[in-house]
Amino acid sequence: MSNDAATTSPLRPEGAPAADEAPTRGLGVSLPAADTRAKTEGTFPYASDLWAEGLLWAALLRSPHAHARILSVDTSAAREMPGVRAVITHEDVPGDTAYGRRIADRPVFAADTVRHHGEAIAAVAADHPDTARLAAAAITVEYELLEPVTDPERAFEAEPLHPDGNLVRHIPLRYGDPDAVGEVVVEGLYRIGRQDPAPVGAEAGLAVPRPDGGVELYLASTDPHADRALAAACFGLEQDRVKVVVTGVPGATGDREDPGFQLPLGLLALRTGCPVKLAATREESFLGHAHRHPTLLRYRHHADAEGHLVKVEAQLLLDAGAYADSSAESLAAAVAFACGPYVVPHAFIEGWAVRTNNPPSGHMRGEGAMQVCAAYEAQMDKLAAKLGVDPAELRLRNVLATGDLLPTGQTVTCPAPVAELLEAVRDFPLPSLPKDTPEEDWLLPGGPEGAGEPGAVRRGVGYALGMVHMLGAEGADEVSTATVRVQNGVATVICAAVDTGSGFATLARQIVQDVLGVEDVRVAAVDTDQPPAGPAAHGRHTWVSGGAVERAAKMVRTQLLQPLAHQFGMSTELLQIADGRITSYDGVLSTTVMEAMAGKELWATAQCRPHPTEPLDASGQGDAFVGLAFCAIRAVVDVDIELGSVRVVEMAVAQDVGRVLNPAQLATRIEAGVTQGIGAALTENLRTSRGLVRHPDLTGYALPTCLDAPDIRIVKLVEERDVVAPFGAKPASAVPVVTSPAAVAAAVRAATGRPVNRLPIRPQAAVAAATARG
Hints:
774 residues, alpha+beta, 7-stranded mixed β-sheet, 6-stranded mixed β-sheet, 17 helices, 26% strand, disordered N terminus, AldOxase/xan_DH_MoCoBD1, AldOxase/xan_DH_Mopterin-bd_sf, Molybdopterin-dependent oxidoreductase, Ald_Oxase/Xan_DH_a/b
């Protein structure tokens, strides 16, 4: 966020104390992360930094083909190389030969068929990384090439690519009257590309065999207990003989770890009896882990003459790639949110997720919701143009509010201030045009050294509204467990919730500070000896794990206050903890927390589990979601209509956050989400040709950099607390990822006067639109 943006940010509410008067601990404070200094100085230990005595190095042999039958695998040349300690294939897997977080359909090693480019076929352990790579390259595989199925529409008629068939899931949503029609109808066909998580650090890990025949895996895992379950099943071991220790996670915006990378690592350690390390190359990272689902969307919107929505019809086709992964859950989100945060009396949505020979798809921030947001917001722009209504005004006539129904039949019971969010970004002052600030250099869409001419630049303003669900969906059990222990004035939080950059470790410290008044709070390292806390996704750790920490801290608080209350003949409810002191309502009792805790060791363990949900039924109906979060974004772009280049000038954001728990951390999460969405809108597309990934590196895959980031103005944060959520807070980073691509596309439409129906936006589309416009 720019300096100017900071002055307009609502992160410090009106009437709040000045910085020198504000509290320095507890909820609502911008407490810095405990590992900030180590990460800044480069001393933070990531998985790629791990080492062990007697270390061996691993390498994987991956398929160069998207679809092929394996006729033979000859590992003899690799086994005979000096320094090679083990070579394993599918024949060496002692337990389950296939895995999957939801559906176990992906083989650890391809046995008879290769289904996507980069699929693992064999693994090698050697005493030097170069030896391991050379040995993997020396393995000879004889293939019979098969025709790849890369068009998801062809998957319906193509021969089965997998024993489970090509269809992962079909959801036919039926809501209202199928014969309803509107006076105005608009249609559109939209395509969303394949976005990669592109983690800062590629996958790496260390496997260490144990004397009891088990193994310890040191990984940048985001769901250690699920990873342990998969590993134990693959290794043919009881779960208590497999331990996952979470190392430093270098960021995560989706499924951070590819289990197909972890499982060979553990198998090699068990085979050799030595520690084994694997550090993936960037190419291997692109080929192995899951990506955002490429999606084809067909829409028809019906509205009355005043622009009120009557009916939405849509067909959504998600490309799951070779295996199912989380495609069923992504499809549920896409179908449920296909109409957006709008009141729609009648909706008929058909959604499919299918297997192809393309790279695997899976969980990424806002999966399913991002793709449909780009499409339904394009439809709203088309309706506005056809009716001659301002795009923001048309949206305001249709926005969802608390008490309305989703097309799934679920009532929106959480705060839904969608109109307030949209009005905030609509009314925020627009950035100055270059002609109004002639003394400043104008940054052209081509960049500081761009070849464009000012006369070819057109400015556009676009709006988008997005929504995401919180926590898991469709009956997922979201329980989390935490322990809070206090001794010698130091509080320790034990919880298996992985901080992937979401700031959970900092939040846990703030919660304990707030409840117990203890300054020194530490968060223990995460491993699977602790009770499970679930995956780091959908803001669940803020809600579920944070809730467990709060409950445990409150139990410790009761243990601390009960003796004092008994001594003074009052209940604990009449005592409060603030600024490190314990005081009674009448001022008779006043002591420090440290004095009250002297010589004591207090601890408590608690769980948090939100209210249950249910799967969508055969007609797409059901209370599938715990809660919802909303966002409005206004994008301002400059488009060079001769070069087709686009520069995002400003993104004005208003977001439904429930409660601000850490202002600085929240601003960072929103800015990061907006920037990731801009990447999906303009540059990020993992391109394939006949299923083969083209340029699987950070030169061929264009991530937005600091030079591409616009001014991000957080113009309003609505703090209307969700009463069923601990602290009332909502997830912060996913909903701006969902909304910002649609806003950028809307702004480009406004600048060029032509539809934008594909993400990322291709330069030639802007050029063609400009030429046609004349």
